Amino acid sequence: MGDLNATLDVDIEDVAKAAKVTAIFPGGRRIAVKLPRYVEDGQTIRLKGQGEETPFGERGDALVKLRFRTHPRYRVEGRDLHVDLPVSLRDAVLGAKVPVETPTGRLALTVPAWTSSGKAMRLKGQGLPRKTEGNGDLYAHVQIMLPEGGDPALEALFRQSA
After folding, report:
1. Which residue in 54, 55, 62, 59 sits closest to 26, CA to CA?
2. What CATH number matches the domain at 4-68, 3.40.50.720, 1.10.510.10, 2.60.260.20, 1.10.357.10?
3. HSE-up of 136 (CA within 13 Å, CB side)?
4. Which architecture does CATH list for 74-148?
5. Is 74-148 in the same CATH topology as 4-68?
6. Following CA atoms 26, 32, 37, 43 in sequence, which dihedral angle do they give, to the nearest 10 degrees?
7. Above 90 in pLDDT, residue 113?
8. What does the alpha-carbon distance between residue 119 and residue 141 come to, in Å, rounded to a whole number?
9. 9-34: per-residue pLDDT in tens?
10. Domain spans, the chain
11. What 3 state SS string does 72-114 have?
């Protein structure tokens, strides 16, 4: 009695940054919640004394169940994240620095020459925070993309070598 319960959907970026989020409880009450450095999908956070007042003059607790939102870019596997990385055919053949979005910002990833589609490239420590220390990893899965609308010079090259 006196405890309040809410379920809060959180973004992967908020989990990675241990951000401050707002939980909305029945009745419309809002409570700011600073996410701990390490949280799991389905975990309940107890905010002591943030619930409703009981008939005995004490305050209950606010219990916030966290759910990770499905992300359009990242796939979560434990503390590791996986993302598809579009790479042009030119960059895959010649090699290049390609921007990769991580939950905490953009990084440049060196794609070596002759990289095949499907190759997973590991960005150490760019995943979700671990319980003890450090972070999981982010795996960028190379997806070679052909030019939109075609490329006459590329087409001619392949016709020539056939």
Report:
1. 62
2. 2.60.260.20
3. 24
4. Sandwich (2.60)
5. yes
6. -10
7. yes
8. 6
9. 999 999 999 999 999 988 888 999 99
10. 4-68, 74-148
11. CCEEEECCEEEEEEEEEHHHHHHCEEEEEEECCEEEEEEECCC
Cα–Cα distance for residue pair 141/151, rounded to 1 Å: 24
pLDDT, average across residues 61-80: 95
Q: How far is CA 44 from its chain centroid?
A: 20
Residue 162 reports pLDDT greater than 80: no
| Distance (Å, whole) CA 93 – CA 75 | 27
Determine contact, residues 107/100, Cβ cutoff 8 Å: yes
Kindly report, residue by residue over 121-152, the tens digit of the pLDDT.
999 999 999 998 899 999 999 999 988 888 88
The whole-model pTM stands at 0.84
